[in-house]
Amino acid sequence: MTGPETGVDADALRAAMAQTASRLTRTLAGSGGEDAALQSIVVGALQAIPAAAGASITLLDRRGAITTHAPSTELVAEIDQVQAQIGEGPCIDAARDEEGPQSGVTDADDLATDPPWPRFAEKALAAGMHAVLSFQLVTGSSAGALNLYSTTAHGFAPADHLIGGLFADQAAVALAGARRVDHLSQALRTRDVIGQAKGILMERFRLDDPQAFEMLVSASQDTNLKLHDVAEWMVRESRERYAQEAPDQ
């Protein structure tokens, strides 16, 4: 079924979004990480938008560092790298759009005709890309954009703008979810190593749990190291000592 106003094949779009959501669920459940989640979005967007010959995701951190993630081809990665090097291009403009996700779309229909980023356009045209659509991602801790490239000038239809925006929204949610999983995993690892370090101190100095933790905190303050780093050092040192003292087999 095709929407009369948008020209979108609703059934095909629902199927593509469902497949992408399924891939994301498997990725996050398996702790595939941020890059795997973004790769799922890129694959889904390419399947849903036939005019897109390439796709990628650009992220800008709070310090302004620009990185490309999940490029569909090596050529796309090279095109994105040009933007990172010169500090301008459609992907960066979309990511930095301060008016929010409703207006955060950068559309260059024909890069051969007076493009606003001539150095970027030169590289894109040399790679065979004549049009680009970039959709802003709102992720909280960083800015970003979902980028779609076409080998044909004016290759993207109005429906592609709608579909691309939906995938950009999905990418933002996926990115937030992947980062939350990463943070939780790191928190669990930190908790585990601190627990091991406390156990070592409790056994070595006959301390109770609060006393062992207080000793770790004091060591962290005295050495100006993070508590987790102090705990890791203590666990590693204990293992090395045990290995040295263990009798030869």
Radius of gyration: 24 Å
What is the percent of helical residues?
55-70%
Strand-and-helix sequence, N→C?
HHEEHHEHEEHHH
Strand order of the largest sheet: 2-1-5-4-3
Number of domains: 2
What is the class of the largest domain in the CATH system?
A: Alpha Beta
For the termini, the CA-CA separation is: 72 Å
Poorly predicted runs of 5 or more residues: 1-5
Major sheet characteristics: 5 strands, antiparallel
Give the helix/strand class: alpha+beta
In CATH terms, what is the fold-level topology of the largest domain? Beta-Lactamase
What is the typical, i.e. mean, pLDDT? 80
Pfam family, one: GAF_2
Keywords: Kinase, Transcription, Transcription regulation, Transferase
Domain ANTAR: 174-235
Protein name: GAF domain-containing protein
Question: Could you walk me through the main structural features you see in this protein, from its secondary elements to its overall organization?
Answer:
It holds the Pfam family GAF_2. It comes from Pseudonocardia endophytica. This is GAF domain-containing protein. Keywords: Kinase, Transcription, Transcription regulation, Transferase. One of its GO terms (molecular function) is RNA binding. By secondary structure, the chain is of the alpha+beta class. It folds into two domains: 171 residues, Beta-Lactamase, CATH 3.30.450.40; 62 residues, Arc Repressor Mutant, subunit A (Orthogonal Bundle), CATH 1.10.10.10. It is 59% helix and 12% strand. It is built from eight helices and five strands, in the order ααββααβαββααα. The chain has a five-stranded antiparallel β-sheet, sandwiched between helices. β1 and β2 form a beta hairpin. The radius of gyration is 24 Å and the shape is elongated. The N terminus is likely disordered.
